Amino acid sequence: xxxxxxxxxxxxxxxxxxxxxxxxxxxxxxxxxxxxxxxxxxxxxxxxxxxxxxxxxxxxxxxxxxxxxxxxxxxxxxxxxxxxxxxxxxxxxxxxxxxxxxxxxxxxxxxxxxxxxxxxxxxxxxxxxxxxxxxxxxxxxxxxxxxxxxxxxxxxxxxxxxxxxxxxxxxxxxxxxxxxxxxxxxxxxxxxxxxxxxxxxxxxxxxxxxxxxxxxxxxxxxxxxxxxxxxxxxxxxxxxxxxxxxxxxxxxxxxxxxxxxxxxxxxxxxxxxxxxxxxxxxxxxxxxxxxxxxxxxx
Length: 298
Prior knowledge:
The protein has one helix at about 275; strands spanning about 5-10, 10-15, 25-30, 30, 50, 55-60, 60-65, 70, 80-85, 95-100, 100-110, 120-125, 130-140, 145, 150, 155, 165-170, 170-175, 185-190, 200, 210-215, 220-225, 235-240, 245-250, 260-265, 280-285, 290-295. The protein is mainly beta.
């Protein structure tokens, strides 16, 4: 069984696993803020992982970088894509751990389709304001590397069904995708669309598995809120390293439990950025990149 690390502070408890550096549990005063998964078991639906060195999908697992074409393993065969990077399902190494923080590290690459070498660290810090995550990637090779990252928590506002939760998301544009493969088609404004949650309103029956951009940052941070009519809630904030946001209502076919949490994934780049180049990070040899986000009770 892979080790895991418990953090406590200010009424919060977080549990992070060495497997995939995943956030397994986050609670405030005994209530879940994210959908947990079982200790020692598989990680369903990428819950809580760090998706690196790319978030979301690469069409056909194929891309060209600096004139060289690479073929990744296709790990989402039903859609023919390479999904959520390479850092999952690897085991990460403990660097530091105390009552309120843990830092895990992992070398990513070289591997099939990604002949680059990154040293990635995930630092989780828990305090009275919630859980703060910092992911740093350093290019440890002598050639530039393509890179992107996002977290993958499923937020939980409270005991009511997801349809009754009120969402406020500071995003003005969404990425239309193909219905079968969820690959990018074009950008469209949320104005007048069912995806417009710039003002708080109930999610209702809306099904979302889309990337959004035109993120509104205030003082360098964007803030999303999710509230339950019972009075509880959860919030997520992120910095300007992540100018994209994936939201997913976790719809599943019966009999699989459906819509049990809202996936909220601040991303450095959109789906298929390894092909489009949109906001793709080019890490030069020795260069580093840091992305950060926080989850907290409302």
